[in-house]
Amino acid sequence: MADQDAQSSVGIEPPALPVLRWDELPEGPVLVLLDQTRLPAEEAELVCADVPALVRAIRTLAVRGAPLLGIAGAYGVALAAVRGDDVAEAAELLERARPTAVNLGYGVRRAAGAYRAAREREADPERAAAVALAEARALHQEDAEASGCMARYGLALLDELLPGGGHRLLTHCNTGALVSGGEGTAFAVALRAHREGRLRRLWVDETRPLLQGARLTAYEAARNGMPYSLLTDSAAGSLFAAGEVDAVIIGADRIAADGSVANKVGSYPLAVLAKYHHVPFIVVAPTTTVDLDTADGVSITVEQRPGNEVMELTFPQIGVAGGDTGGLLVAPAGTPAYNPAFDITPPELVTAIVTEEGTVSPVTGVGLAELCARSSQVTIS
Q1: Which of the residues 143, 205, 253, 343 is marked catalytic?
Q2: 143 is catalytic
């Protein structure tokens, strides 16, 4: 921690996290992931040599976060194409891996579309595979650039809403470099505030039941020398009551056409608390997370996770992603569990949506559609 503080104080940034990369091995190409189920105890890599392995990694949350899922999906299509596998079948498997994060389907369809178009132009499957890989790499780069834009727009909004700096921000789940081709979405805004001396405190919800805040956001905050504190999700209300929160800043897995936001479960209660306490509630996400084909929040499919995630305390570093997680029962065996991965925040509770194309505030369907019309990455149907 001392070394990280020293780095921050002299403006030296820690090296980029090796979250996802394409690698050419003697036995063939692979997609190499930083296994997020094993953080923070261990920075271990997970090698996916085919699409079924990548699908398992997505479902077990070894790779997660809406923007990164889109990137992984695109590389997955390229992996199938380079291996000579059935690209259409691989794309279908990938797109079904997690239903709520719209970026996954976007990345898959984009790479698969590039592959199909190349095959229609010429019969050479190797050249078509190279086109799919180039498309995945382009999406990866675009997301990194979008991350930087969101950080700038987000901090400008915070400075406008909260003049004077010294921002005390509350965040939920994980929205940093672990979910992005760059430095993240909401976390990237907080990180930029920190680097410019305008972050007083980052409040980190632990994010039950899988503790993405405790395991991942706290890990990234410590790595960057940020002033942060971890709290249980149920303690957030007392922070608001004490006047210790200046703004809530979260990411999104899908934003409907009316501005309804699907994000990690626990986000909606924060929006309600923020509304009651007159605190800005800000969503930061790339335009690839906006789904103009989904009319409203009711129309968003919310992923239901296995009950054992609620029933057990897990120690992923002991096991293997997709295998034994070293679970310790915390409820009687057989207890029914309700475990939605996401909840929906209606647009009237959202102060602003920040994207790489700018900010929508107040949040309306018309404003969101106009913003997306400026983006080359979103198709208005």
Answers
A1: 253
A2: no
